[in-house]
């Protein structure tokens, strides 16, 4: 009996060894480990897109998502040399690159072997391909996951930073044009005066400021935009003055913004509770529809927008406004020759050093690159973006269309687990913008941008709202994009060499800015001076480093 | 124990023998201690090798990631001691530790004494269970609850307002001066039940005859507590105190990290958070280790100091 069992067991083991050979066509199946530098959902086992990947490429994925602090997680992986095959370092990819975790993709990506990938990065290759500091050779560790769009830039809505205001406030004010900081706060003040509470009797909050952890940009970033620049992180770049770069927070023109916030605080528009607030509490607050305005980036509160839409509270969703300083108010403190013109939306920004790299531990880098190469073909891109034809979308008269139900499905996270390959596709190279060739030319790669879906499925409130302004899309509330500066966006610049100064620079801001907003107006000037004196050393160190880095980047890109 | 009950104590006085003779005689005991010895060696002594990191240069992140960390002398320590916020974090750590120690010990003893006086078993059990359940809650949840309770419209402010104790709501979460006490209060709520367990068990070992004798001598309930219960747990208290003093440099990490916000960061940053901000998150293990070493050295000094004082006062000691 025992002998029989052991023979059976042997056979089973042998069988399991043989099975892969039976399935393999050309290349043996392989399971790749994948790390994503942000939290996410594991796909379902029966996910149809991953099944197709397995069928065509013989590749399966084992995902690990970020849980906890990103830098710490990456630091541990570097210390232990414990790298997944596909490695997405999220916002701290600089760490794993300097940690030697990634291979140079240029060993595999070139015009002859990978024409698709090459064509994909070519227009921006001056930014994407970097020079190794020590060896001086060309390197590319990561193919940007977003921002390499084809065709005219699509600005259906503001996806990045802006001052946001609830639609009902604009509607109540008679659909005014709001362009300056003062007009913005004026309108909110008047609205609150007339409607102190919502229908349930909950008081409205005029303006929220999120300060939690890295989302502190809601508190410390607005000044550059008020000065008329797109998102350069914590510095202001003067593109008309040899790309002179400085930190803006310690400059006289920044004082105006925080003084305004101080005024609004004492008028009761800003609550003290905004500073201890966590991100979850912030999203909960926005989702309840009581927050009238805030400075943020669209993607940062997407969950709140979805919640409001699901609840049918369209009047409580937000419009992105591009506010600037009233030039007459800051005229005496502007840098020489500076003109304030609203530029919230930047020209197509490749997401440099964001996305998957292939780690040095990976045994089949060539196979992955080949897979990406093949995936840039139209059929695979449509599969990732639109789904399976006939099932998830259809083609009518050369246009890609979805029914309302099909589109609603794509937004349902539970459905996505079975029918979308988000965890893999989001960090992989992808085509965006317009389809430029073939029978489908003129369609959008992404369903969310396709006019039939964007406008066809817009709710009635939004349609009437836009009609009242005479606009076609929400992107019309801001100026059209400007051409991307040669250095890209300065927040993408790696500042690890001045890390410690940067930490001080941030900590001092986080200590003083809330105090400045809440202090007695009579003490504001004195406190501001104290703030500037305290922050100057670290701000100068960080600013000077960034000045050099921006200029170096410009020199590199302009050749 | 049987001997003790009759008030007779027998001492076994071993004859002086060599260490190895004794070891051979007690080989079973020695064998049993091997796992603990290994545990302490592996997890407490071997990691000390990592202390060498305190003398290595981790400031260049790119080099660190490549594994290049040259000798750096005392520069990590010099950097630490040049930072006013490092001293600030030491101050915060010690302040919160002392508050936690005092609040925690006093509340635990108080509750233990109260429970000890309760004669109704069911009630006693219920209170015990209810008070120590929060110990098992994750700090994340506790802090989220605290944030709701203590915010401007939270339960505490509403209570204070309705009782007329304050005129406008208190900004508990945003004022640095409240932060240490808030941490103390939250810790008491979370740990008080857990802390009583050891004192209650100490109280059960007090000879009931002592209580009877005290009653006969005319001692009331409070006098029995004062003269029997409290002296009965004194040695437990002293040992726990000495051990806790050794942990004074550890005020916790989670609660300050979660409850802290920009407004109170000068009061909430403990040594551990400082190490995280300037050390671990920046891969600067040199600074992180230096701060850790400093912490350990201070802890040893505190521990030995407390032990010495305790010995001088004629109390029980740890070593």
Q: Are there runs of chain A of 5+ residues with pLDDT below 50, and where?
A: 20-25
Ends apart, CA distance between termini of chain A: 78 Å
Helix content of chain B: 55-70%
Strand element count of chain B: 0
CATH fold description of the largest domain in chain A: D-Maltodextrin-Binding Protein, domain 2
What order do the helices and strands of chain B follow? HHHHHHHHHHHHHHHHH
Could you explain how this protein is built, in words?
The complex is a heterodimer of chains A (559) and B (319). Chain A folds into 2 domains: 29-151 and 351-446, Periplasmic binding protein-like II (D-Maltodextrin-Binding Protein, domain 2, 3-Layer(aba) Sandwich); 161-344 and 459-492, 3-Layer(aba) Sandwich (D-Maltodextrin-Binding Protein, domain 2). Helices cover 42% and strands 11% of the residues of chain A. Chain A is built from 23 helices and 16 strands. In chain A, the strands form 6 sheets. Chain A has a 4-stranded mixed sheet. A 4-stranded mixed sheet of chain A has the order 8-11-7-12, sandwiched between helices. A two-stranded antiparallel sheet of chain A has the order 4-5. Chain B contains 17 helices and no strands. Chain B has one domain (75-312): MetI-like (MetI-like fold, Orthogonal Bundle), CATH 1.10.3720.10. Chains A and B meet through helix 3, helix 4 and helix 22 of A and helix 4 and helix 16 of B.
